[in-house]
Specification:
Blueprint (H helix, E strand, L loop, with lengths): L21 H10 L3 E3 L5 E3 L8 H5 L2 E4 L13 E6 L9 E3 L7 E10 L5 H8 L4 H12 L8 E9 H29 L6 H7 L13
Parallel strand pairs: 3-5
Antiparallel strand pairs: 1-2, 4-7, 5-6, 6-7
Helix pairs in contact: 3-4
Length: 213
């Protein structure tokens, strides 16, 4: 999982039909740098990035993370994860998020809730008021929680998303402003939340609509 294993290759999730001929596969592999031909003549996708075969990457995943409902944070390339147990190890990869092959635990900190930035607690619980956030954590942990409650703050990153963003950075000098904007839209842009916030209110929610903690 270290830098020495990172190779400058592309990955492609496409799968070829078994009915395609080997000659067709060879031509396809030559045209698609993300496809590799194995010693047995089969053609399949590399990846994710930095691994010759999908199995090579899957073998680095040590288990699954426990998700808590369909929170928006699971759609982010990097997201916080608050637990009251020592469940995950920094540097290990985990599965368990639908539609994604794996996430890396990039940070792990034993701390108390009062020392965590409120916006991190908000995105972790999917709520904005202090009382609602504490209520979510109380239900998650099965016991009352307060400012001094001891927790583990994990930060997870989606392997493929991060590599794709790095590939985007390699292109930004050549693709122009419009192309860069398209990449950013594919990642996340806060301004796009205005359209659905307007549907829920007569006016767009601004920062002063969030209660002070």
């Amino acid at each position: 999982m270290g830098l020495e294993e990172f190779m400058d290759i592309e990955a492609d999730d496409s799968e070829l039909s078994d009915s395609e001929s080997k000659s067709d596969n060879n031509s396809f592999a030559e045209e698609r740098p993300g496809i590799t031909e194995y010693e047995d003549g089969d053609v399949g996708p590399r990846g994710p990035f930095g691994y010759e075969k999908m199995d090579d990457y899957q073998n680095t995943i040590v288990g699954n993370i426990d998700t808590h409902g369909g929170l928006f944070k699971y759609h982010m390339p990097i997201f916080p994860h608050i637990e009251n147990e020592d469940k995950y190890n920094r540097g290990d990869r985990y599965g368990g998020i639908s539609g994604h092959q794996g996430v890396s635990c990039v940070s792990k900190q034993e701390t108390s809730l009062v020392k965590i930035n409120r916006e991190m607690i908000m995105i972790d619980t999917g709520q904005t008021s202090k009382d609602d956030c504490l209520s979510v954590l109380k239900e998650r942990f099965g016991e009352s929680v307060g400012p001094d409650y001891k927790v583990y703050l994990y930060i997870f990153a989606k392997t493929r998303n991060l590599v794709k963003m790095a590939l985007g950075d390699e292109l930004t000098d050549t693709i122009g402003a419009h192309g860069k904007d398209e990449i950013l839209k594919g990642v996340y842009n806060e301004t796009y939340t205005r359209q659905f916030r307007k549907k829920d209110n007569d006016e767009t929610k601004l920062t002063h609509h969030i209660e002070e903690w």
